[in-house]
Design goal:
Layout lengths: L28 H12 L15 H12 L4 E5 L2 H11 L7 E5 L4 H9 L3 E5 L10 H7 L4 E4 L11 H11 L4 E3 L7 E2 L2 E2 L6 E5 L12 E5 L2 H10 L4 E3 L11 E3 L12 H10 L3 H20 L4 E3 L6 E3 L4 E6 L9 H12 L4 E2 L22 H7 L7 H7 L2 E5 L7 H17 L4
Parallel strand pairs: 2-3, 2-4, 5-8
Antiparallel strand pairs: 1-9, 6-7, 6-13, 8-9, 10-11, 12-14, 14-16, 15-16
Helix pairs in contact: 1-8, 2-8, 3-4, 3-7, 9-13, 10-13
């Protein structure tokens, strides 16, 4: 426990922690060897000549589909493109509405605008920060063609209620699973419950190749469409790979784009998938310890998740600070103080997209289709009280802090205590 008289690091005092934190991304010799193996080969992408054997992209897609408990996986170059091809495979476009939580990364919404559909924003459950099923129910119209729940930070949306809404209204669910590779809703892996699941493998994610993404589904026709949509209308041919020829052939059922994952990334992801659950287990155990430490601090509550989440995956460790404890200070100031004490980036949660600088579809001329479309894309006058209140009270830490030891976890608790006890001195 830190003394009240101790000076905050931001004012020249000694920081709580000045040691090292676990690095992310981690890299093993075996993972490195696979990347070098691809580099030395004559095939760096699935659009290159076959080496007469299965590509790394195909190896990864098979392994990741199995990991997610589904029949098919289509890798992509990033999570945004995964969302795009999921929407297009469901034939969503101009005039359609897609329900999206207001509290999410911008790509969940920008993917919808990029197919010329309208994101219909809804509020969240303030205890879990995931989308509110009740808010979704109220937002459904005859134009609603999909629902995109986001499994946020370290939890999952209420998939029982959402599945019921989906079934009753015949509206497909696209799960945005970018934070929770391997999480379980009861016995069902994230991504396997809706019509399509989408993932990001960007550098900060728990499964990463710097960039990368994937869609997963149990429906062969959707997988076929998504394969073409991510490879300019081409799909893997059946049969034996012929040395020197391409493994993908022109189909043209759908006009696609080039969203292909490279062989470097696929090889790296294939290897990283083998150690993912071991990392999950370590994060989970350390999160339980940190929960206990933080619950001993007056005014601090770790983020909740639903009881049906059998396996919790931590992309970021999130906790709430009682507004009375931070007095008149903004959440940005609190995060800055904690960052100074810990020597690691402590951040607020996502800013609700109606207040976010980076969600700005009308900055692009191609979305100025007509007056009605422009009107529907405007968010300035919208209010989402639960998400907006949450932004001002929740703090998040990167998942790599949970790969450390007890000293790291105690330092986090000590830093929070020190900041709260000395905040009046600013």
């Amino acid at each position: 426990m830190k003394k009240k008289s101790e000076m905050l690091a931001i004012k020249g005092g000694k920081p709580v922690w000045n040691g090292v934190w676990p690095k992310w991304p981690e890299i093993t010799e075996k993972e490195l060897s696979k990347v070098i193996e691809v580099m030395k080969s004559e095939r760096w992408a699935i659009s290159g000549p076959s080496l007469g054997k299965i590509s790394w992209e195909k190896k990864f897609s098979i392994a990741f589909a199995k990991y997610c408990g589904v029949n098919y996986c289509v890798p992509t170059c990033n999570g945004t493109s995964a969302l795009l091809i999921a929407l297009e495979a469901l034939n969503i476009g101009y005039g359609d509405e897609v329900i999206v939580p207001i509290l999410t990364w911008v790509a969940t919404a920008s993917a919808v605008t990029n197919v010329n559909a309208i994101p219909v924003f809804v509020d969240v459950d303030p205890k879990t920060l995931c989308v509110s099923p009740e808010a979704i129910n109220s937002a459904i119209t005859p134009n609603t063609k999909a629902i995109i729940p986001v499994h946020l930070y370290s939890g999952m949306a209420d998939m029982d209620k959402l599945s019921k809404i989906s079934s009753q209204n015949e509206i497909p669910i696209i799960e945005d699973c970018s934070h929770v590779h391997g999480a379980l809703w009861r016995e069902s892996p994230a991504g396997s419950i809706g019509k399509i699941g989408t993932f990001s493998m960007q550098q900060t994610k728990v499964l990463t190749a710097g960039e990368g993404g994937a869609t997963v589904t149990n429906e062969k026709s959707l997988a076929n469409y998504m394969e073409q949509l991510r490879a300019d209308g081409r799909i893997f041919k059946k049969g034996v790979n012929i040395l020197g020829e391409m493994d993908i052939v022109k189909m043209g059922d759908l006009q696609g784009n080039n969203y292909c994952l490279t062989e470097y990334q696929a090889a790296l992801l294939y290897e990283k998938l083998k150690t993912l659950d071991l990392q999950h287990e370590k994060r989970w155990k350390n999160a339980k310890i940190l929960d206990k430490l933080l619950l001993e601090i007056d005014g601090i509550v770790p983020l909740s998740t639903y009881k049906s989440v059998k396996k919790r995956v931590y992309y970021r460790y999130v906790f709430k600070i009682n507004s009375k404890k931070i007095k008149d200070k903004s959440i940005e100031v609190i995060c800055g103080l904690l960052s100074s004490e810990l020597g690691i980036s402590v951040e607020p949660i996502y800013k609700p997209l109606n207040q976010s600088k980076i969600y700005n579809p009308l900055s692009k001329k191609r979305f100025h289709i007509n007056e009605e479309h422009i009107r529907k894309l405007k968010t300035q006058d919208l209010n989402f009280h639960k998400a907006e209140k949450a932004y001002n009270s929740f703090v998040s830490l990167p998942h790599r802090v949970l790969l450390g030891n007890y000293e790291h976890l105690q330092a986090i608790a000590d830093a929070i205590t020190k900041v709260l006890e000395n905040i009046s001195n600013l």
